[in-house]
Specification:
The chain has helices spanning about 30-45, 65-80, and strands at about 1-5, 10, 15-25, 25-30, 50, 85-90, 95-105, 110-115. It is an alpha+beta fold. It is globular, with a radius of gyration of 16 Å. Helix content is about 20%, strand content about 35%. The strands form three sheets. Strands 4-3-8 form a three-stranded antiparallel sheet, with helices on one face.
C-alpha cells in the first residue's frame, strides 16, 4: 500500500514496520497494519476500545483498516494472550457494555522487539 505525496509515491508508514513478540517462548511475527496495531498497544497500553455492538473501534481507525478484519485481528490477539479484555458501561449508551482491549504485555514478563525498516534516501 502506498500514498502519493506531491510528485513521489511514499509507502504507508506501517509498510515498513515489523514486530516480533516472544510470549512464553512462542514467537509471533507481525507486519504491516497488524504490526502498527501491536505497536500502539505496546506504547500506549489500553489505546483502543470496541464499543456497544462492536460498531466502531476508536484510535484504530487512524490506520485506515476495515472494521471487520481489524476486529477479527484484535480478538485473535486476545486468544493468543497478547491482549486482555475487560468491560465497563459504554460511553455512547450507558445501558450497553463497552469491551476494553488492553495490552497483556508486561516488560518484566515478556520480551518484545520492534524492528522498523527505513529505506536509504
Amino acid at each position: 500500500m502506498s500514498k502519493k505525496i506531491g510528485d513521489k509515491t511514499e509507502p504507508e508508514f506501517w509498510d515498513s514496520i515489523e514486530i516480533k513478540l516472544n510470549i512464553d517462548g512462542v514467537v509471533h511475527d507481525f507486519s504491516g497494519w497488524q504490526a502498527a496495531l501491536v505497536r500502539e498497544f505496546l506504547i500506549y497500553g489500553a489505546a483502543m476500545t470496541v464499543d456497544g455492538a462492536y460498531d466502531y473501534v476508536t484510535a484504530g481507525g487512524v490506520f485506515g483498516v476495515g472494521i471487520k478484519p481489524m476486529t477479527e485481528f484484535l480478538f485473535k490477539m486476545c486468544d493468543e494472550g497478547i491482549l486482555k479484555q475487560s468491560k465497563e458501561p459504554s460511553v455512547k449508551d450507558p445501558d450497553q457494555e463497552r469491551l476494553i482491549l488492553s495490552s497483556a504485555l508486561q516488560p518484566d514478563q515478556f520480551l518484545y522487539q520492534i524492528i522498523i525498516h527505513r529505506e536509504d534516501e
